[in-house]
Amino acid sequence: MKLYTYYRSSSSFRVRIALNLKGIAYQPVFVHLVRGEQAGAEHLKRNPQGLVPVLEDGDFTISQSLAIIEYLEETHPEPALLPSRAKDRAEVRRMVSLIACDIQPLDNLKVLKYLKDPLGHSQEEIGVWYNHWISLNFKALEQLVKNKGGGYCFGECVTMADVFLVPQMWNANRFKCDLAPFPALAAIEQRLYKLEAFDAARPENQPDAADG
Q1: Which of 2, 14, 107, 130 sits at 20 to 30 Å (Cα–Cα) from 66?
Q2: What is the pLDDT at residue 182?
Q3: CA–CA separation, 204 and 60 (whole Å)
Q4: Do 11 and 28 sit in the same domain of this protein?
Q5: Do 193 and 91 share a structural domain?
């Protein structure tokens, strides 16, 4: 497999974690988002959205981190990232969707760049925007994991919800969000980083991190 990735992309971070958890070897191909390499003609052939991650598995190419991770779950079912019971899978997917649909799209690079130019917002105003969506949705997620967690986001095993949580926490820390109101999320994050699959996937541990 090949994974087109950028070290600071939270969506790529998710896929790196999932690949590591499942023990799947892959070749990283680095796409520098700040330099605009995602808009190059070659990359647009892989993903017309001009985004990362993109996964190539033989002659099959797929983008969108959630679709990629669901694909990995179906093609490499062990260890499972979704529970066996339908109701439990729905709970995990609810947490995943809260992050993937209600936080990350509002706080990703292309949105932040648009807020700055052409809309003309200051970096301070952009920081307020970022913190607002983190705080609003982490408040709900904190309650969900308190109700459903047992050391991890859901129950006593790592699930897809944990895979999505850690990159979002990393971004929140990068943008200096106040995470004090979310002790359950912080505790889960620290527990997950003790696992090699999560630690190895950290942005600062990627070869392209040196390129900035």
Answers
A1: 130
A2: 98
A3: 29
A4: yes
A5: yes
